[in-house]
Structure formats: structure tokens, C-alpha cells
């Protein structure tokens, strides 16, 4: 676990770190509640260039995301926490199993937002007890305007990799983040070292060339964005590049050489469900709304809804080159959802006429 800079073995920071470890967190760091002005400049440039695609929520509250004190003026310190979800294998091995859907590692069981928020609340209550009268706290897990990676980097949990995600010396690229804002004055953590150097494996690993350069991404080309956040039909030129990825993409994370130091994530609620490790595309495509909700109850996948998910499945079917999936795609051409119907037609044509399907408008 990452360690703060402590002057006493029994300091408040020590006690918080020990309790965080007891709750199951893998990393913890402390920092002052301020960020460099370059964070706001970068966010405005990202949105101004349109790289955020249909994520309209990024256009609002930029100032609050860029500076903790704008979101909550009373905050003095931030506790940044990490939970490892490192897999026991390279997820890219499943790319060759074209009759199966590939789901991002973090999404193969419970919704991590719920898992981490529960842990954060317990730690926050502990901090209030230890901090005494007047101590205030707020907890966040990717559901508020908070610059998680920037705060984690300032708290020395790791550094922002060239793939724009956090990289840890201990856990590689496989770490989920959460934060506790507090009115306590906490001693900042010590630097841990580490960096990307000249390595660019994550950039070249991207199947859709979503990276404009190191530390810069056009989300509109990112498969994670396309399968989770993007509203409407996915651009035709990107579909063949998506392979069988139906929810998220781990390619740039998997390519990071720092992962060789990562131990397999141990949190039981993040261990992959067997039915989501290698799900059959033919079965997923037949899910109606009630069945989708039942299968993905408690999963982050439920958030995108049945229509967007089946749209993704149909793209994987179109890329499968599996003639046995033609009837599955054909059956969805009459789906009430126009995006599903259009994608089903694309998938059917790609399977039956592979040289003409990409000409469809």
C-alpha cells in the first residue's frame, strides 16, 4: 500500500492508512485540496476540440472538476484511494474467440461504484471519529466533477500514463479510484517515483488509433467510449476495428509493462463472474429488456441499457466471420430500436457480403 509522509508511527494519517488497508483498499495517499491551473486549461481544450464526443456532462462544471475548492469551499485535504482489479491473464487473449463477447475486466462482476463507495463511507466515518468535532467529509467515486487521476497523482498513488490512465509502481494500470474530501489538514504523501520513460506500448496498442499523442486522447475513437458512452449508431469506419469488444476495452492498459509487478486483484466482489468471462454473442443478442436487467443486475453494464448493449453485440457479430450468427443478426433487423435495426443490417451484410458491408451508409 502506498504510504504517506509521516512523522509519527501513530499519526492520524497512519491510522487512516491502516484502516483503509483493513477495509480492503490497496493504495492510499494524501494531498492538499488544490490542483495546478493546467488541469482546467487541459479540460477546456479537450472539450473545445470536441474530443469528448456525446459526453455533454463534461461541458458543464469544468471549474469544479479542475479545483476541489470550487466544488466544496471548505475542503482542505483529499484522501485518494485505489483498489486493484488486476486480472490473472492478459484480456487480449480472448480477442481470437470471435463467437464470444469481450467485456472489460472491471465490469465482469459488481458495479465498482457501489463497491468502493461503501468502503469509502466506512473510512470517512472512521476519519470523523478520529478527527474530532467539526470534521467534515465527502466521498466520491467517478460520479461527481472530480479529477480523480490528477488527485491520485498528486497524492502519489502513481502517475498519469501516456494512455491518460493512472499507472502504479505496485499495481500497474489496473486500479480503480475513489476520493474523500475533508476539512482535516492532513500531511501530504511522499513521492513514490516511477514513470513511462520512452515507452509507448499503450499508444500503439490502441486498435482505433484514439491517441493523438502521449497523454492526449480523442475519446470519439476510443472503444470504451464508443461501447459505453456513445449515443446513437457507431461510425461505420470504426466498427471493423472493434472486434468482439462489447463493453469497454483494456488494450492500452494490458500493454503497460508496469503490469508485470501487479498481483491479481483480490476483492471478492470484483472477481469475474463465470458467465461474463466468455459470454456467447448468440445468447447476448437475444436479450430483451427484462432479461438484460436480470442478467446484469448489480453490474455496471446495466447502466448503458439493453439497446446500447445489443448494438455493441451486433458489431461483434458482424466482425465474427461466423456464418452461424447470420440468423441472429437477421432477426434483429426488425427491432423497434432504430440503432439496433441499422446495426443488425450492417452485421448481416458484413457476414454475407464481407466486401460490401463497409460501404453501407
From TrEMBL:
Catalyzes the conversion of epoxyqueuosine (oQ) to queuosine (Q), which is a hypermodified base found in the wobble positions of tRNA(Asp), tRNA(Asn), tRNA(His) and tRNA(Tyr). [4Fe-4S] cluster 1 binds at residues 196, 199, 202, 256. Monomer. Its cofactor is [4Fe-4S] cluster; cob(II)alamin. It comes from the Bacteria. The active site is at residue 142. InterPro entries: 4Fe4S_Fe_S_CS, QueG, QueG_DUF1730. Belongs to the QueG family. Cob(II)alamin binds at residues 65, 142, 147-149, 166, 177, 224, 249-250. This is Epoxyqueuosine reductase. The gene is queG. It is found in: Cytoplasm. GO terms for molecular function: epoxyqueuosine reductase activity. Binds 2 [4Fe-4S] clusters per monomer. [4Fe-4S] cluster 2 binds at residues 206, 222, 249, 252. It holds the Pfam family QueG_DUF1730.
Amino acid at each position: 500500500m502506498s504510504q504517506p509522509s509521516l512523522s509519527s508511527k501513530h499519526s492520524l494519517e497512519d491510522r487512516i492508512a491502516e484502516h483503509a488497508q483493513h477495509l480492503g483498499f490497496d493504495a492510499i495517499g494524501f494531498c492538499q485540496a488544490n490542483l495546478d491551473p493546467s488541469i482546467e486549461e487541459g479540460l477546456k481544450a479537450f472539450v473545445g476540440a470536441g474530443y469528448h464526443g456525446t459526453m455533454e456532462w463534461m461541458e458543464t462544471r469544468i471549474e469544479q472538476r479542475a479545483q476541489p475548492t470550487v466544488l466544496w469551499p471548505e475542503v482542505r485535504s483529499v484522501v485518494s484511494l485505489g483498489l486493484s482489479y488486476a486480472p490473472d491473464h492478459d484480456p487480449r487473449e480472448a480477442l481470437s474467440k470471435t463467437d464470444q463477447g469481450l467485456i472489460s475486466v472491471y465490469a465482469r462482476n459488481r458495479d465498482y461504484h457501489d463497491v468502493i463507495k461503501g468502503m469509502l463511507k466506512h473510512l470517512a466515518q472512521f476519519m470523523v471519529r478520529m478527527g474530532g468535532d467539526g470534521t467534515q467529509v465527502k466521498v466520491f467515486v467517478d460520479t461527481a466533477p472530480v479529477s480523480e487521476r490528477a488527485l491520485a497523482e498528486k497524492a502519489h498513488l502513481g502517475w498519469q500514463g501516456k494512455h491518460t490512465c493512472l499507472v502504479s509502481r505496485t499495481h500497474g494500470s489496473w486500479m480503480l479510484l475513489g476520493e474523500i474530501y475533508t476539512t482535516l489538514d492532513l500531511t501530504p504523501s511522499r513521492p513514490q517515483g516511477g514513470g513511462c520513460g520512452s515507452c509507448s506500448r499503450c499508444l500503439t496498442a490502441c486498435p482505433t488509433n484514439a491517441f493523438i499523442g502521449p497523454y492526449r486522447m480523442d475519446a470519439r475513437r476510443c472503444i470504451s467510449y464508443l461501447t459505453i458512452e456513445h449515443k446513437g449508431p457507431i461510425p461505420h469506419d470504426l466498427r471493423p476495428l472493434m472486434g468482439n469488444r462489447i463493453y469497454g476495452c483494456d488494450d492500452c492498459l494490458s500493454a503497460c509493462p508496469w503490469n508485470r509487478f501487479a498481483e491479481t486483484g483480490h476483492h471478492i466482489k470484483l472477481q469475474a463472474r463465470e458467465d461474463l468471462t466468455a459470454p456467447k454473442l448468440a445468447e447476448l443478442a437475444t436479450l430483451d429488456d427484462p432479461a438484460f436487467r436480470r442478467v446484469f443486475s448489480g453490474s455496471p453494464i446495466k447502466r448503458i441499457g439493453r439497446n446500447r448493449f445489443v448494438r455493441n453485440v451486433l458489431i461483434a457479430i458482424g466482425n465474427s466471420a461466423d456464418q452461424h450468427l447470420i440468423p441472429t443478426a437477421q432477426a434483429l433487423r426488425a427491432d423497434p430500436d432504430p440503432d439496433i435495426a441499422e446495426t443488425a443490417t450492417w452485421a448481416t451484410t458484413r457476414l454475407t457480403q464481407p466486401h460490401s458491408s463497409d460501404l453501407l451508409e
